[in-house]
Amino acid sequence: MMKGNILLLCFLFSGFSLFGQQKQLTYCNPVNLDYGYVPIPGFTEQGKHRATADPVIVNYKGDYFLFSTNQKGYWWSSDLYNWNFVSRSFLRPEHKVYDDLCAPSVWIQGDTMLVFGSTYSKNFPIWMSTNPKENSWKEAVHEFEIGGWDPAHFVDDDGKLYMYNGSSNRYPLYGVELNRKTFQPIGTRKELLLLDDQRYGWQRFGEYLDNTFLDPFIEGAWMTKHNGKYYLQYGGPATEFSGYADGVAVADNPLGPFEHQSLPLSYKPGGFARGAGHGATFQDNWKNYWHVSTMVIAVKNNFERRLGIWPAGFDRDGTMYMDAAFGDYPHYLPAKASDHLKSGFTGWMLLNYNKPVTVSSTLGSYTANNAVDESIKTYWSAASAQKGEWIQSDLGALSEVKAVQINYADQDVTFLGKQTDIYHQYKLWYSTDGKSWKILADKSANKKDVPHDYIELDQSVIARFIKLENIHMPTGKFAISGLRVFGHGKGSKPAAVENFTVLRTEKDKRNSWIKWNTVDNAYAYNIYLGTAPDKLYNSIMVYQANEYWYKGMDKEKPYYFCIEAINENGSSARSKVIRAN
């Protein structure tokens, strides 16, 4: 009995719940990282906040290493879920800038990992390591002759090394071959790719792709080779918008000429957390492809951002794709060789969208239902960060709960810069009647910074109410942008959507107006689209609406669409695929 009590105490104080499990099978975007509080001159005054962007993940010796903008370090993981931060500055003392490794390039050359940050100066080194877990680095090159913003390096099968870079709404992406020993250019760099927003609607600037305030930006190069073809990926049209995406252009040679794919590769304009731009493609330990990219908040300032990871790959015709359907719902982590054309979505539905919420207190206009409205841009805030502040979500009926995601918001935070000793502590409760409560997860002893904590339950529970109780906040008020409960409801799936129509204007064939009949018991819809009836690789999640203005088409191609309805119990059958000429 004594031994059992000791084991139970150790388990509780480790920060895990009785229902939690140490080996995670699923994940949920945004990625739960200890994002730094980034100071940006001229913007920070809008509100202190967390941010990072421009991610690269490389698979090195069976582990995954994640580098991103201005974090004063990097992360590594063995499973893409549990991330370990390594504190490191890649700036030399003479660098008097706020950007610490902005939009980095990371590549593997032989048995060595190399890192290079965005710069137009010649005194920024290329760093190298054969033991990055232990923060063991040295300079491979003290000064690099050719710099550039948003660089990416690529080692071809023949051993040749190339660098790609560019970040502009006037100038193209560039490419150049480098000497793989000295890293100096061989010849002059070559102009590779420009956006063509007059043809490809998704490349237009603005939240609604109709803003002429600025020309769109092309940036964030990344190269992947597959079956002898070169896939040059790029970000556009701007990081502030829900349509932030990565496009891809294909060539037979590493320096082109390149031809755009009509559809963006990574595209997530709808749902809780939107955007999927400026990223990188990598393979897991089973050779499955994944894409990591930047998600948008842009509330405290334009550059408030998070990261997301999605399944990706190439179809039998060589078309590169990424699966963002249900892209911020729970998905399976890699565990075996998989066909990413088949969804990795768990099927666990959102159980508490716009359901009743009660709270301990409210700060100003940051009202309770902001925590369940499926927008990361809005949030509820308690009046304080005191222990005992709480938020309670009513699922509306008894449901099978499989997982919970807790998304903290930055309200009245005081930090700037990377923090390595902060943490969240909380208790998560469940109840069938709102009166008798049981612990779902106890993280009152947690010592990790978990701004987007995701709790996958070892065993599902039947509950109607979920309650989050604050124990400790690292800074600011107790504020939640999303208390998201996933599992299965006890009712019926929604009926199929009727009268699904796509009206494509002749005046501007980049644009369409999509309409459908409302399904009574549906809270959302997934619109699937593509340039062939069997290649519907882009998707848009729409909440509480029966229309959508889609302005992202290639005006020279026909498009194909279908739709499904969504509720707490599952998804309807998809509608018949229709063609929009």
From TrEMBL:
Keywords: Carbohydrate metabolism, Glycosidase, Hydrolase, Polysaccharide degradation, Signal, Xylan degradation
Residue stretches making up the F5/8 type C domain: 338-488
GO biological process: xylan catabolic process
Superkingdom per UniProt: Bacteria
GO molecular function annotations of the record: hydrolase activity, hydrolyzing O-glycosyl compounds
Signal peptide: 1-19
Family, as annotated: Belongs to the glycosyl hydrolase 43 family.
Listed name of the protein: F5/8 type C domain-containing protein
Organism: Pedobacter cryoconitis
